[in-house]
Amino acid sequence: MNTPSNVDSAEIEKFSQLAHRWWDKDSEFKPLHAINPIRLDWIKSHVSVSDREVLDIGCGGGILSESLAQSGARVTGIDLSIKALRVAKLHALEVGAKSVAYEEISAEDLALKRPESFDVVTCMEMLEHVPNPASVVEACARLAKPGGWIFLSTINRNLQSFLMAIVGAEYILNMLPKGTHEYAKFIRPSELLAFCNDAGLVEADLKGLHFNPLTQRYWLDQKTQVNYFLALQKRPS
After folding, report:
1. Distance between CA 138 and CA 232 in Å, rounded?
2. Is residue 198 pLDDT above 60, yes or no?
3. Would 2 be classed as within a structural domain?
4. What is the mean pLDDT of the chain?
5. Which pTM was predicted?
6. Mean pLDDT of the 130-137 span
7. Which of 11, 48, 137, 206 has the greatest count of CB atoms below 10 A from its CB?
8. Considering only CA atoms, which of 90, 86, 92 is closest in space to residue 64?
9. Domain containing 39 — which CATH number?
10. Does residue 195 sit within a domain?
11. How far is the C-alpha of 212 from the C-alpha of 2, rounded, in Å?
12. Distance from the first to the final alpha carbon of the chain
């Protein structure tokens, strides 16, 4: 395996330090547990994952990977945090999730080993944590089979996203540890769509993810000012 270059070591260490808390639904990962049913339903509204080869890039402790496996997919979860992967593997054993496997490898390196191997590729809440998100998007495209689906999520870059995703979520509501996000790494939808177009991916759906702190409710709609989801398909050969 090549030495990964599209890696922020500080980001890997940040999440590694919290790895033991991935499956604690009252921990720093509470928002991921809360939005996971929404992520899963959104993915399944576009493609049936049952009996499909699915890749989850930046899988962390395996929250999305496991739910995809429980929906009938054959899942490969990859991450560069050894501690998070250990947690993911242990939890899969505990719940008997046999159709999910985990590997310590970057998306770029896996694309060299297994091009066009997956019916579905997910990369959720990860692009804003790497130095070169375009490189990850390109790897997603290379990993997907022709006609395959790619699902991405990240955070828009504007004043509203700064106030809500950083000031609000990290400093006022304490939903996330301080320093979880860097504003400069946020990605505008137009920028992400440009990366996808360059990689040969076609937009299928763009939705915004929203949260009401009073009701603790999450939902999707057309407004993408802060968090957003993007579904794409790889052009057939």
Report:
1. 13
2. yes
3. no
4. 94
5. 0.94
6. 97
7. 137
8. 92
9. 3.40.50.150
10. yes
11. 43
12. 28
